[in-house]
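User: I'll paste a sequence; please echo it back and then give the predicted structure.

Assistant: Echoing your sequence first, then the prediction.
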Amino acid sequence: MMIAVVPQENYEMCLLPLVNTPVLDYTLEFLASSGVKEIFVFCCAHPELISAHLDGSKWTKASSKVTVTTIINTQCITIGDALRDMDSRDVISGDFVLVAGDVVSNLDLRPVIAEHKRRREADKGAIMTSVYKKVAPSHRTRSLNDDVIVGLNTETSEVVYFSSEVESSKIDLDVRLFTEVPKLELRHDLLDTFIDICAPEVLMLFSDNFDYSDLRSDFVRGILGAEILGNK
């Protein structure tokens, strides 16, 4: 069974109506259509509004094929806080989907989940699989906050470099990358969907590193910079 965690840091966005339907419902439908059976909606702000919406929705009815549980902790400010709280509750023991509460997608996650599990079987250090979409840097669907440079090992599709600091005309790369990754490709045409398949080790690493607040700039860069863990 696949479990999903949906952090809600911005309640205005997740309850924003899109074609008369709150965006959060699209996120839940996306997960349900991909075979997810249990979903935790983590509320950091205005939990009463999100809880009221879910309580009156189809997701909490007896006929629902998906179990949706609302978790509330208004002391959490960042995604890091939310994941540490989830780890302390000990409700996740296997791989899980981590997705923002304002994602609208028709992607079938099942092949992505299967690929994540295949990589985990081959390499226990492969603790997270992230979904990116090819989008030109100048495309209007991208905002400045989405601008990233991703370094890929083209033989394995493993992310070996990540930077959201792309305002400069140059980037700093560890020279060891060129010797350790013979087929290195730097990409500036990838849009982060903020859809991730995570191993339970992700939660433990957030608990072990209280300075991790952001999933990308702290966690991903921290993992890429760690030499002793071997996590990918």
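The helical segments are 11-14, 23-33, 47-55, 79-89, 110-122, 176-180, 201-208, 215-225. The chain has a mean pLDDT of 88.
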